[in-house]
Amino acid sequence: MLPFANLSFWEKETFLTNVDYLIIGSGIVGLSTAIHLKKKQPNKKVLILERGYLPTGASTKNAGFACIGSASELLDDLNHSSENEVFETVEKRWKGLLYLRQLLTDEAIDFQKLGSHELFQANEKTLYNECIEKLSFLNTSLEKITSIPRVFQTAPQHLVISGMNGFQHAIFNAAEGQIDTGKMMKSLVSLAQSLGVKILNSIEVTHINTNEVVTNYGKISFHKLAICVNGLAKQFMPNEDVAPARAQVVVTSPIKNLQPNGIYHFDKGYYYFRNIGNRILFGGGRNLNFEAEETDELNTSDQIINHLSSLLETHILPNSAFTIEHQWAGTMGIGKTKAPIVKHLKDSIYCGVRLGGMGVAIGTIVGKDLSKLILDSTS
Ligand SMILES: Cc1cc2nc3c(=O)[nH]c(=O)nc-3n(C[C@H](O)[C@H](O)[C@H](O)COP(=O)(O)OP(=O)(O)OC[C@H]3O[C@@H](n4cnc5c(N)ncnc54)[C@H](O)[C@@H]3O)c2cc1C
Questions:
Q1: Residue 215 and residue 223: Cα distance in Å, rounded?
Q2: What is the pTM of this model?
Q3: Most buried by CB count within 10 Å: which residue of 27, 172, 252, 282?
Q4: Residues within 6 Å of ligand 1 by CB
């Protein structure tokens, strides 16, 4: 492909010059930031640069769980953070989901409010009992946020009807649901483009200077820059606490009379599965090898894929014939805390990164917050 220097006057004028807001990354956050900037300032030029021929981050690779947090996860968070912090985060997720649904519509993202189940294995009796002890406290706190009475309920009957094996207990969460990840991203891209946002694919930013970025084809100047690259942010902000974490997923062949319906988590959220029509999507296993999974490589590892396949056979689909038809890896952005980094870094440079494992719930609201920060700031 031609370097920028060899493009025509028209090409440079139309696509690459006088960029008011330049955004790196066309995931949920980059697209939402662009949408909000364009909605507020329709006459400004908003350009997104994306390294992949498709968006190549977590936003097109995730499991489509519309989550606010399972009982064991919230209790674990309460051990490390204050009650205020934990429930503020839950509220952000809840409001984020409502906002995503309002921005794109339930139909466009195929939102299904089937609820979720947290499953407990035989060796997790203590954890389950802790959850049961605190269930009414969690329900009181969550009702204030969601207006749903009894968000969490025990669901022993579900284990019998779902045909699974090896799980002793289940807790139902009435506030969660699932989306079609592909449809969500298609809708976000369409909305951004309909507002006049330009998206250029296969352009990788390699370096950021005060008012220009260096890419694989040349330089582009900007008035303000938003870095929305999630788990790949370290290269541009070495002092921030953000690291890549690989997450791997498999999808089965279609299964006759598939029983599990909705979304499920187990082992403190390290494993998650759902149905996609009559298939099962199953992901997780990062806890098998944290060190090796702190990578932005997009290949899958035999260790984790084999483990997922084996758990499908023994625990999730013990009575069904299936094959693994799809498998992939994606990059999450994680740090010591679960909160995203939405920040003015320096000069005209801002970021919205480190979305963790809940980007579906908070991604569009992070984009909205970031656009507000950019618009309100005088630099
Ligand atoms: C396998 C998997 C399953 C998940 N499941 C769920 C789930 O069920 N529910 C949930 O809420 N969350 C889930 N997540 C997390 C969620 O997907 C993310 O939190 C969210 O998508 C992050 O969005 P983002 O826009 O910040 O980043 P990303 O979607 O990662 O977007 C960043 C973009 O920046 C681009 N980019 C990076 N560097 C450059 C560069 N130098 N130049 C140009 N472009 C660049 C990338 O190609 C990418 O497209 C999952 C993540 C993974 C990986």
A1: 17
A2: 0.96
A3: 27
A4: 24-30, 49-52, 55-59, 61-65, 67, 204-205, 228-230, 232, 247, 249, 283, 330-332, 355-361, 363
Ligand 1 mean position, distance from CA 266 (Å): 22
Q: Is the pLDDT of residue 160 over 80?
A: no
Q: For atom 22 of ligand 1, which residue has the closest CA?
A: 359
Burial of 76 (0-12, 13-18, 19+ CB in 10 A): middle
Tokens of 84: 């205020």
Pocket test for ligand 1, best of 360, 364, 368, 370 (most atoms within 8 A of CB): 360
Strand partners, 227: 24, 351
Which two three-digit tokens encode residue 153? 């309920």
- Summarize the confidence of residues 190-199 as an average pLDDT: 98
70-177+243-334: CATH homologous superfamily?
A: D-Amino Acid Oxidase, subunit A, domain 2 (3.30.9.10)
The string of pLDDT tens digits covering residues 76-93 is: 999 988 999 999 999 999
Predicted confidence band of residue 379 (pLDDT cuts 50, 70, 90): low
Q: Which amino acid is at 309?
A: S
